[in-house]
């Protein structure tokens, strides 16, 4: 390093040079003393490690495990109860080492980075309902489902709805809703909120929430068939009541909440039960209950349905929606479902029963058909039709008949 000194340094006086060499001698002495002390310390630790190894050779402990523990280094700060030890997503990555001064820039990775959200599917629901009293409701609502990196899901629902009724100007509706679904342990949470925009009516807020808890965990056969399951869920809904054009024109909104219970008793028997309590902004209230017990026999199934609906007041004449003080429907259902071809599966069902409205009994029959077409491995569609004389409004002595065309297009990515 002496060659790197500039020549003008040698013109300093001799006394100053003497002080420099004296200072260097003191520094050299300190360094040699520290080196001798460190060398002795290393020999002492090596001797202790040798003694420990000798003692371990006569004990039942594994010597390889002992050396493995010695090779581990604990961090400067280690807390067992730190949040990152319970939730791995909270762990902070270690700081990246600084590159050398003359190092070349890193080569960019050719692997694409994992996106924060991936589009999983698009499900489009379609429903076209008409009756013999001039009421028409049309629903077209696509839902986009995204999966986040942590496994949670995001939903985006929009669409176009149309409501037409005799004596009322038609109403067009454009819903928009954003939802989230995630799990905390075994509990599944789902929430959504949005706004309903109308062509000639004020916009209205909508929201819903659902909490689903498995009481008995699912048991699945090796073939993938569900053997047993018991699930309890709680539901909350709020928004405009989309019963018909008159109800929307009167700006009727409601809150509905209540539990659902699904019980897969065995591989062929299931029970579903639901209870809803409702409150309306016109001061009315309702209680709904529905139960269904189903038993499968190969491709056939037999089910019993019970539905009860009661309102505190009958406000159909003023608010526009069907609000019976006491409405009861019970029926038996016989259905068949099977594959017609490799890409076509259909279901046929007939419900025969009775209905009671204001103390008067009448027949309650429903006939349904639905087919599922598999267009490709990632695209399939449902098409259905049903006819029913179960009342959706108070028609007095006149018979009621309703037709419903339904469908769903599912696209997976």
Structural summary, described in words:
- With about 425 residues, the protein is an alpha+beta fold.
- The chain has 2 domains: about 10-90, no CATH class; about 120-395 and about 400-410, membrane protein fhac: a member of the omp85/tpsb transporter family (Porin), CATH 2.40.160.50.
- It contains 5 helices and 17 strands.
- It has helices at about 15-55, 65-70, 85, 245-250, 315-320; strands spanning about 115-130, 135-150, 155-160, 160-165, 170-185, 185-200, 205-220, 225-240, 255-265, 270-280, 285-295, 300-310, 325-340, 345-355, 360-375, 380-390, 400-410.
- It has a 17-stranded antiparallel β-sheet that branches.
- A hairpin with a 2-residue loop joins β9 and β10.
- The longest helix is centred in the N-terminal third of the chain and has 44 residues, at about 15-55.
- The chain is globular.
- Mean pLDDT is about 80; it is low at about 1-20 and about 35-95.
Please tag this protein with its features.
single chain; alpha+beta; Porin; 2 domains; 17-stranded antiparallel β-sheet; 5 helices; 17 strands
Derived structural class: alpha+beta
Number of domains: 2
User: Which descriptor suits the 3D outline?
Assistant: globular
Number of helices: 5
Report the end-to-end length measured between terminal Cα atoms.
67 Å
> What is the CATH homology-level superfamily of the largest domain?
membrane protein fhac: a member of the omp85/tpsb transporter family
Radius of gyration: 37 Å
Any idea what the CATH architecture of the largest domain is? Beta Barrel
Which CATH class of the largest domain applies here?
A: Mainly Beta
Give the tally of β-strands.
17
Largest sheet: 17 strands, antiparallel
């Amino acid at each position: 390093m002496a060659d790197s000194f500039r020549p003008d340094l040698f013109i300093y006086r001799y006394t100053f040079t003497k002080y420099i060499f004296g200072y260097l001698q003191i520094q050299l002495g300190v360094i040699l003393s520290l080196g001798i002390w460190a060398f002795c310390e290393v020999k002492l630790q090596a001797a202790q490690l040798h003694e420990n190894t000798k003692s371990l050779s006569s004990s039942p402990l594994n010597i390889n495990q002992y050396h493995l523990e010695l090779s581990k280094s604990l961090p400067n700060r280690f807390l067992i109860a730190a949040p990152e030890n319970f939730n791995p997503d909270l762990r902070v990555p270690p700081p990246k080492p600084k590159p050398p001064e003359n190092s070349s820039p890193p080569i960019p990775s050719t692997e694409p980075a994992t996106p924060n959200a991936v589009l999983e599917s698009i499900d489009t629901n379609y429903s076209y309902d008409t009756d013999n009293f001039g009421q028409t409701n049309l629903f077209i609502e696509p839902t986009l489902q995204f999966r986040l990196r942590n496994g949670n899901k995001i939903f985006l629902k929009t669409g176009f709805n149309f409501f037409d009724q005799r004596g009322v100007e038609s109403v067009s509706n454009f819903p928009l809703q954003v939802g989230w679904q995630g799990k905390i342990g075994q509990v599944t949470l789902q929430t959504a909120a949005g706004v309903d925009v109308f062509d000639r009516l004020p916009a209205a807020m909508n929201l819903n929430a659902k909490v689903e808890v498995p009481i008995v965990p699912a048991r699945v056969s090796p073939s993938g068939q569900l053997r047993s399951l018991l699930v309890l869920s709680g539901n909350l809904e709020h928004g405009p009541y989309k019963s018909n054009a008159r109800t929307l024109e009167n700006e009727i909104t409601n809150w509905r909440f209540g539990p659902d219970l699904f019980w897969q008793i065995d591989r062929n028997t299931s029970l579903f039960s639901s209870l809803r309590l409702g409150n309306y902004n016109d001061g009315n209230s309702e209680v709904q209950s529905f139960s269904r017990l189903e038993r499968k026999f190969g491709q056939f199934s037999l089910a019993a349905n019970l539905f009860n609906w009661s309102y505190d007041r009958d406000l159909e004449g003023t608010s526009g929606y069907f609000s019976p003080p006491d409405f009861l429907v019970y029926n038996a259902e016989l259905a068949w479902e099977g594959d017609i071809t490799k890409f076509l599966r259909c279901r046929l069902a007939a419900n025969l029963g009775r209905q009671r409205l204001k103390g008067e009994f009448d027949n309650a029959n429903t006939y349904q058909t639905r087919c599922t077409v598999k267009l490709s491995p990632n695209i399939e569609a449902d098409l259905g039709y049903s006819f029913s004389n179960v009342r959706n409004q108070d028609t007095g002595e006149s018979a009621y008949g309703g037709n419903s065309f339904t469908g769903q297009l599912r696209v997976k990515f």
